[in-house]
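User: hey, got a sec? need Membrane protein folded
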Amino acid sequence: MDNFNLFIEKQFKVSIVFLFIGLFFGILYSINLLGFFIDSTTLNPVNIRAIHISLMLYGFIPLMLSYLPFLLINKEVGNSKEGLFYLNLYTIFWYIFLIFMINTLLFGNTRGLAFYDFSYELNFILAFAGLFYIIALYKFIKLYKVKPTWVKVSLYIVIAAPFTLLILMNPTIGQVESTISGPHGDNTLGMSFALIPIYYLIIKLLSKNDFKARWNIFWIIPFVFYILSVLYRSFIGHLTYNQEWFFQYLTLFYIPLLYRWYKDANIEKYSKLALLISIVAFLFVDIEGNILFIPELRWVFHRNDLVVAHAHVAMGIGVFFMVISMFVSYIKQLQKINFYTLYLSGLIGIFTVLTLSGLAQASMLNTSTYTLWEFRTFFGIITFLSIIAFIQIRTKYSLLEKYNIFGVLSDGLGGIFLILLSSYLYPLFSFSFQGKYEYVVFAFVSMTGVIHYLAFKYKVHENILTKLTVFIRVFVSSIFFSLYLAKSLHIVALLISLFDISMVVFYLVYIYKKEQLCKK
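Assistant: Yep! Here you go:
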């Protein structure tokens, strides 16, 4: 049980880093809209937007939602150590996918799509991760003597998911390119319905009593009509606008359904707060979406900032707080009101200014969209600052810890800084920049920073990992110095060599000396 709890807490905090990376790129994109941009190859506005949206859709939120069956099984019958091993592998490969996705988009490998803009080939990493997920779920399910219906359904869906992913995302036979102008009314009904079983499982997870779903007719009717719409599209032809409108309005059945489920559940304070926020956002988006489907409004606001505001509430509040409600009992930072206050202040602010901007773009409001975009950037920063709730800062550090912190900042963040801005900074200092091998060097610089972080994080390995960074710096410094003398590289090579050897000298004189004296 302790291993499972520690695993959940660790992966939540690791994966939320990708959420804030996504928010960071969203702020950069917003600044670009204001006309402030840097002539950097990697920080191209198209790349920034693709990274922001892709991380929102494929980062923290879906990864954490995928833990839902395991959380519920753990509550009902416990957990499997062997299953936890495969769940960890699944998570690691998801992180590998996210790193590949960020870097490919950063270097301009986009598909020109509104949402799923990364290269199709990366879906194979996700599909491979899905195989470990299937094994993990199977190991957990074996703990049941009698398997509940939801467990059987989950396993069937999970087994089909990797293959479905590769088909739907395929650029030739998939649905991504063919639905970039959507969504249609029945597609909206289908996407909305996909969240209903998730709400059911979350309420079942959080409820202290034995939760029994009531008023099921309100999800059965929309589900039946959604299946009929899929069959109609597949075998007869396109739906008329009025038919789409009919399917769109069936989503209103979810309002009484979620009200009934929420009232019947017995949930603890902060979990109930997060779930309430999620349900209110979901129902708001549902009602607003039905209003925007009115023909006179749909074409006025189609693809303007009001629709973007709608998406921020749907994903940034509705689905996001579904996830938060699942993990409140595991993450103590989610049991404090400051996170909710900061995050919601930012998201509601973004929604408000984007809504006003959408009205202005539709000539229904006489105001400057530029000023509204300035506020959009401000509220994005407020949302980003909610990360403060997850940061714990100590005030006292040993000399070795300070050395490693400096290594993280100089090499870890410095390498990332150079990947993002080197194509802009090098010409400013009259340095030559080819934009090829340099990025590989910057990546290795960042990895040295990662070793410093591991040395700082894991006290038991602190000395050996720090020494490893010293060996790396001596070797790298000598190579760059040699390339400078051979005139193969210019002054930048000398600067790198001097910086690395300076770090080595500091370690040997001030830290290694004390280690030896302590041993004696």
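Quick note: The CA atoms of residues 120 and 170 lie 7 Å apart. Let me know if you need anything else on Membrane protein.
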